[in-house]
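Researcher: Structure prediction, please.
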Amino acid sequence: MSKTKVLVTTIVSAVVGLFFLFCLGWTIFDHYGKKSSDMGANEAVPNKKDLPNDFTVVALGDSLTRGTGDESGKGYVGLVLEDLESEYKHKPIIHNLGINGQVSEELVQQVKQTEVRRQIKAADVILLTIGGNDLFQKGQTLIDYDSQVIAESQQKYMENLHGIFKNINQVNDKATIFLLGLYNPFIELDDDLDTNRIVRDWNNDTAEVVAHYKNAIFVPTFDLFQLSVNDYLYTDNFHPNKKGYRLIADRVAPLIKWEDEER
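Model: Predicted structure follows.
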């Protein structure tokens, strides 16, 4: 073989070798470099479906918070927790501090207690039912119907409500407070006493108080019971039954999920 052919063969071999080395390098970069970039991107995007391990719900208020009337004992608080557990990967911590028969004046005092304040401080969400006993007073309001007495009870309740929110926010103004409005268990008496108007006025004033606090949300329940109240009441014709609590939970739980995803 002549020197010229040897030189040409060497040059061609070198070019071909460099070409394959280039292709090999490009393949390695494309595979591993791109994969590493994608992994980094995945790590940068938080998983919205995860709740913190210490995500805490504090439930305050009256017998609706205790679940009175629900044969299973869960009430709307228990059902909301089940919904959260189903949606996310674990069940939140729950402190149910509801007291049967509690009125707003008593709740003002309860949220001042040292242990209650400690639990409120750790809360991410606060569920609250109050006002039904202030208005209806175990039915006595309707037996001794007096519009002036109801107006005075309403005014006092609104003052107490401000006190409850202020005391909660003193220790934790980051937790979202969901205050449930009243439904009307006496709707069938409406022809005589105009109870729908009374409950609506009560709810409207309550919503205005709630609007003063940026971390609080008013959750209406009036419409849930309006058309078929007897289908959703316990045998005492006052508290919700299991189906009634289900209606309430179905309205509250999605709001908690929305709040969490907005963090």
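Model: The mean pLDDT is 85.
Researcher: Thanks, that helps.
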